[in-house]
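Assemble and predict.
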Amino acid sequence: MSFSQFQGLFVREVKRIYRNPLVIATTIAQPFIWLAFFGSSLALAPSQFLEEYFHTTSYIEFLLPGVLSTSMLSIGMFASMSSVQDKRFGYMKRILITPTTKSTVFLSKVFGATMRGLVQIPVMVAASIAFGVRFHIPPAGWVEWILALFLLGLGFSGLFLGMTVSSTDWQTPGLSRTSSPCHSCSRARRYFHPRASLYG
Amino acid sequence: MRDISMVNPVTFSASLGRSIVTTGTDPNLMYLAYLAIFAALTLSLGSLAARKWLKVE
């Protein structure tokens, strides 16, 4: 595997994500919305209750590590969309006629997806600070936490991309997203349509 | 569910993050090692799968 090949494809993955202003806006707005609506659900709870059950007086402080971890899981699930898109638009064909190995393509996509997840960390931390959380974490703690999220992102991106590596169907990455309501609806329609048509 | 959570990498990552953020204690490095093994395993298997099954279209 050549590092320059990996670098070129990795940079492309990252640029492709953040070239769209809407993606940047969503990346920033989503954590704020999430923390505002979900994090405030226990805002009126007595601090004694929070101390007893969550070992902190701020529910957002308790929520943040879990939200970032599940965010890396979601990012991993979406990683395979990039591969399917490249196949559908013919980009994969152009890449694979060069000396670039398939492993390089795979790894660049995995690292690209993980980078997308990592960008959410400063945004979420900033959102938490805006909602009143005060962090007292030593530099080594930050490094360990970010490293853990990085490894989690790599793991899930590798897992889901590996599972869908042979697919060219837009819906295949969606098969792993069982939590997606739209996905469930589309599958339900497919399953129930023939039977429903019997009844007019 | 408890059995699944015992091997779920998200559990390890969230627990590690919480120990750092809420209590400020040193995280369990075994959690970090577990996540490293998980990442190494999926990257290796995924890479092998890509070599074998990645198609151009």
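Residues 177-200 of chain A have pLDDT under 50 and may be disordered.
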